[in-house]
Write a structure and sequence with these properties.
The complex is a heterodimer of chains A (111) and B (114). Chain A has 111 residues and is an all-beta fold. Chain A has no helices and 11 strands. In chain A, the strands form 2 sheets. In chain A, strands 2, 4, 5, 9, 10 and 11 form a 6-stranded mixed β-sheet that branches. A 5-stranded antiparallel β-sheet of chain A has the order 1-3-8-7-6, with no helix packed on it. Chain A is globular and about 40 Å long. Chain A starts with a strand and ends with a strand. Chain B has strands at residues 4-7, 10-13, 19-25, 31-37, 43-50, 53-57, 64-70, 73-78, 87-94, 104-105, 109-113. In chain B, a hairpin with a 2-residue loop joins strand 5 (43-50) and strand 6 (53-57). In chain B, the strands form 2 sheets. In chain B, strands 2, 4, 5, 6, 9, 10 and 11 form a 7-stranded mixed β-sheet that branches. A 4-stranded antiparallel β-sheet of chain B has the order 1-3-8-7, with no helix packed on it. By secondary structure, chain B is mostly beta strands. The chains are: A mainly beta (111), B mainly beta (114). Chain A binds chain B through residues 2, 30-31, 33, 35, 37, 40-45, 48, 50, 86, 88, 92-101, 103-104, and chain B through 4, 31, 41-45, 48, 55-56, 90, 92, 94, 96-108.
């Protein structure tokens, strides 16, 4: 069964606005990763946050992790049209490398 | 230089045929994966190899057989193709097994079974 559920399923914003996506998961995790998928392309790794971390930044990306609520959020600030893509969270359980992906959020950034 | 490459990019074939998808990574990674992404974009792991050894084998029909001739290559052979096999198949690699490693994905192979 899916480990991650993402919310919203789809999000449409104007360029320059911030975009927030949420991910909830079911079991205890080792780490949580966010990936981006442009239409017709493979996934690209964005950021990894470990279970003992609460927040991480990378450029315009900010990821938070709340293990007590089993949830994570991805914030993209000052969005650009090039950020239009699907965003997936993925969780790793225990010491293994098996990633279980969420359902994805489809982000559209309009000019 | 493409880090993870797959061939072919598109594959259209009829039910009952046998087909293969090839994957190569030039990142020097030890671990490689096959994922299946369905029409709703749900991505699920199928197999994982670490240095040519199978370490993850999800509940996949035995018509699917991965083969890793060396740690830079992981191929996927599918026998007796069915309509439900239509999907996009992604190869990926990571530096090692164990948690905490990001995965690098190939561009995908869109398989259409008619």
């Amino acid at each position: 069964s899916q480990q991650g559920e993402e919310d919203p399923q789809a999000l449409s914003i104007q360029e320059g606005e911030n975009a927030t996506m949420n991910c909830s998961y079911k079991t205890s995790i080792n780490n949580l990763q966010w990936y981006r998928q442009n239409s017709g392309r493979g996934l690209v790794h964005l950021i990894l946050i470990r279970s003992n971390e609460r927040e991480k930044h990378s450029g315009r990306l900010r990821v938070t992790l709340d293990t007590s609520k089993k949830s994570s959020s991805l914030l993209i600030t000052a969005s650009r049209a090039a950020d239009t893509a699907s965003y997936f969270c993925a969780t790793a359980v225990g010491g293994g490398n098996k990633l279980t992906f969420g359902t994805g959020t489809q982000l559209k950034v309009e000019l | 230089d493409t880090a993870v490459s797959q061939t072919p990019k598109y594959l259209v074939t009829q039910m009952g045929n046998d087909k293969s998808i090839k994957c190569e990574q030039n990142l020097g990674h030890d671990t490689m994966y096959w994922y299946k992404q369905d029409s709703k974009k749900f991505l699920k792991i199928m197999f994982s190899y670490n240095n040519k050894e199978l370490i993850i084998n999800e509940t996949v029909p035995n018509r699917f057989s991965p083969k890793s001739p060396d740690k830079a290559h992981l191929n996927l052979h599918i026998n007796s193709l069915e309509l439900g096999d239509s999907a996009v198949y992604f190869c990926a690699s990571s530096q090692a097994t164990g948690g905490g490693y990001e995965q690098y994905f190939g561009p995908g192979t869109r398989l259409t079974v008619t």
